């Protein structure tokens, strides 16, 4: 019986086979001298105060990490879950709420919870060995933070993250706005599994049967899911005629996913939790990168039930077929992306206006960092190695900052693979792509860098601590594509490994 989680031995074997097949075409980058600071800060991140008003009302949630039997496409397997379901129990609060989540670990291995996309105090970030010790079997840990900004977020383990998220340890965190632009909203969490047979050989992967930039991860997964189920068992979106619906799409997997609303007009309402204004209606195909969140809104005007599907280049895309059922209508539309001749991928840099976090983008930054991403053969039987400036974590050079710095990062992808780079604890502003300045501000916490692309981003160092900056294709993160933003004057008292067996990736 096949399970989603791929053992480390199988993972290394598959990556070794993959690396032998592509090492001739993967472009590496030259190692650079490292100038990593050895300065020890004066303030422990655990001593950064949590500025909570004494009279703040707190919304309490309990999450239990435990094993559960799960079934997808008729195959039952042992999953790891928060509160017994995949995705884990949804946490939904109102903007401005104070949130307390009590985690209890009933698994046989240590776990954590990372609040992906949330800007919160460093010690609440949930990264084992960086911001806390992993929660041991039988132990508990409480997370507390202020849900200041409305938006779509998610939570997942950041202890041995590649394997634990792969087993099912993730869920949605929704911060609702006080004033809504929609009547209903639905969360769609996308993922991949190792259920079924993978007949995709190396030559096929490099031809029409695969998606460019994802040759490695596509060797591993054979089934796609939406909210833990595959078609025809995906729960429908129920809507009344004339209602406005927000779809909160979260990619919890390690591959890009594409969705097509079958020519139904929609607008992009938010990206990575940040609202877009004045977005025009479109019916283009939507692409969501690993770790990314995109909110759509549409007003129901169809006279037949319809469905959302995936015009991806791989066979597993047939598993994604999301019914949209209109109240009082029984007739089902049989339209599909297969009926369309020329599907166009949406351009996220030209969808609307986002409020910039940095008005003067031409001012001289206080810190500049070049991040060269590469992939190639690893050392010491690690299979593939995914590097930043020629090094793998924890030997990568951190981005050393002080509070208040304006930081510019130039990211170059020198490999043949996609790298969705995610920054913890901060939002950044994308200012250029491939040397061309963006007309409209794009504010995110994750940007997918396709092969041989370059992006320039700016962020303000306004949240002290130690924060990861890593690839959210966690196949790549566990292979070394991780660095950190480190604030001068602060230090982490936690260590990777040690008695708590801390494994952030």
From TrEMBL:
* Keyword annotations of the record: Copper, Metal-binding, Oxidoreductase
Query: Which InterPro entries does this entry report, sorted A to Z?
Result: Cu-oxidase-like_N, Cu-oxidase_2nd, Cu-oxidase_C, Cu-oxidase_fam, Cu_oxidase_CS, Cu_oxidase_Cu_BS, Cupredoxin
What is any Pfam family matched here?
Cu-oxidase
Query: Where in this chain does the record put each Plastocyanin-like domain?
Result: 66-179, 185-310, 383-486
Query: Molecular function (GO) terms listed?
Result: copper ion binding; oxidoreductase activity
The name of this protein is Multicopper oxidase family protein
Q: Which organism is it from?
A: Chengkuizengella marina
């Amino acid at each position: 019986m096949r399970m989603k989680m791929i053992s480390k031995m199988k993972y290394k074997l598959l990556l070794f086979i993959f690396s032998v097949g592509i090492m001739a075409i993967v472009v590496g980058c030259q190692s650079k001298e490292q100038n990593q600071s050895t300065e020890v800060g004066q303030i422990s991140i655990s001593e950064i105060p949590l500025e909570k008003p004494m009279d703040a009302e707190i919304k309490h949630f309990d999450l239990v990490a435990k094993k559960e039997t799960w079934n997808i496409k008729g195959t039952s397997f042992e999953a790891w879950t928060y509160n017994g379901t995949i995705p884990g129990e949804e946490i939904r609060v109102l903007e401005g709420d104070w949130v307390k989540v009590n985690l209890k670990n009933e698994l046989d291995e240590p776990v954590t919870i990372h609040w992906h996309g949330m800007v919160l105090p460093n010690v609440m970030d949930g990264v084992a060995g960086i911001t806390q010790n992993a929660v041991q079997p039988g132990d508990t840990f409480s997370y507390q933070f202020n849900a200041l900004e409305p938006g779509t977020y998610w939570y997942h383990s950041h202890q041995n993250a590649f394997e634990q998220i792969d087993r099912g340890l993730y869920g949605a965190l929704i911060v609702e706005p006080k004033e809504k632009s929609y009547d209903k909203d639905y969360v769609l969490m996308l993922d991949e599994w190792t259920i079924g047979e993978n007949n995709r050989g190396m030559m096929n992967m490099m031809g029409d049967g695969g998606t460019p930039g994802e040759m490695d991860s596509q060797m591993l997964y054979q089934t796609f899911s939406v909210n833990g189920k595959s078609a025809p068992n995906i729960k429908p979106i129920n809507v009344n005629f004339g209602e406005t619906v927000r779809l909160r799409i979260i990619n919890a997997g390690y591959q890009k996913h594409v969705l097509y609303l079958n020519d139904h007009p929609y607008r992009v309402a938010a990206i990575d939790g940040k609202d877009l204004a004045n977005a025009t209606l479109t019916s283009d195909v939507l692409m969501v990168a690993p770790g990314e969140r995109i909110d759509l809104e549409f007003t129901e005007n169809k006279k037949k039930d319809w469905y959302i599907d995936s015009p991806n280049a791989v066979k597993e895309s047939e598993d994604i077929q999301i019914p949209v059922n209109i109240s009082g209508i029984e007739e089902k539309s049989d339209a599909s992306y297969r009926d369309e001749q020329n599907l166009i991928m949406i351009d996220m840099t030209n969808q609307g206006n986002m409020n910039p976090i940095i008005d003067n983008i031409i001012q001289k930054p206080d810190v500049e960092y070049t991040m060269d991403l590469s992939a190639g053969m690893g050392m010491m039987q690690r299979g593939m190695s995914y590097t930043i400036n020629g090094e793998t974590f924890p030997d990568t050079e951190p981005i050393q900052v002080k509070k208040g710095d304006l930081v510019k990062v130039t990211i170059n992808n020198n490999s043949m693979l996609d790298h969705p780079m995610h920054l913890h604890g901060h939002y950044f502003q994308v200012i250029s792509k491939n040397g061309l300045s963006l007309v409209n501000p794009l504010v995110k916490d994750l940007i997918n860098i396709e092969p041989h692309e370059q992006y320039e981003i700016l962020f303000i160092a306004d949240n002290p601590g130690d924060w990861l900056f890593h690839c959210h294709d966690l196949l790549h993160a566990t292979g070394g594509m991780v660095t950190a933003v480190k604030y001068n004057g602060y230090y982490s008292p936690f260590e990777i490994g040690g008695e708590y067996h801390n494994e952030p990736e």
